Amino acid sequence: MSSKTVVITGCTRGLGQAMIPLFVKAGWKVAGCARDAQRLTDMSKLHPAPHWFTRCNVAIEEEVAAFCAGVLERFGTPDLVLNNAAIIHPNAPLWETSAADFGRIIDINIKGPAAMMRHLLPAMLKRGEGVIVNFSSGWGRCTAAEVAPYCATKYAIEGLSMATAQDTGGKVAVIPVNPGIIDTDMLRSTFGDNAGDFPDAKTWAKKAVPFFMKLGPKDNGRPLTVPGG
Ligand SMILES: NC(=O)c1ccc[n+]([C@@H]2O[C@H](COP(=O)([O-])OP(=O)(O)OC[C@H]3O[C@@H](n4cnc5c(N)ncnc54)[C@H](OP(=O)(O)O)[C@@H]3O)[C@@H](O)[C@H]2O)c1
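Above: inputs. Below: predicted complex with NAP.
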């Protein structure tokens, strides 16, 4: 059994939620955040202390600062940070996407992981180890119609991660990871019922969690894909 700590943003649904039981079963302590208060309460009942599930909108700098301070106080420096929280917009060409919707996806998908790294990297660098995974996408490496703002955020995640990896020099590995294509609320919003052709989040998590647990300095700055993804 491990006594390691994993931080997961976007823990109430989809991939974030599906990974939690596997980390818990392996003996990891889990700190998770999202916005849905009721789901967070339910998760706290399902996985009580030492695990910690709390409200934090990753788009709001002050909330990220408070969440990260809480993580460091309760758990010490985390071993693994999974910057998983993100949104997608309704399918549409850019010129039919409002400035407000564009701003919202930038704030959550880019500024969120950047803020998490800003608040956790100093402690992780001081300790001299740890891994940060920034969730990218197939649409962070190639493009598609009607998802330009989402693609822009995931291409940004690739650049943000690789450049930050150069700054850490591998003491703390910063890695952009494409999770693959998985049937979640997010996929249903873009693919509709065709999302059912893809594996569900629980099936995905069985491959993804062992893969994340094994990441280390050798992976710093390397764009990776979850096996089978
Ligand atoms: N599913 C796929 O096929 C696929 C493919 C490529 C990449 N990805 C990436 O994988 C990650 C997970 O996707 P998913 O399919 O699991 O999405 P999902 O089912 O829509 O779940 C997203 C999670 O993020 C949380 N979240 C959203 N906005 C947030 C915010 N501002 N602050 C904090 N938490 C927030 C949501 O919880 P609340 O609503 O409670 O805040 C939810 O728990 C994302 O980065 C996504 O871009 C997914």
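Residues 5-225 form a domain with the Rossmann fold fold (CATH 3.40.50.720).
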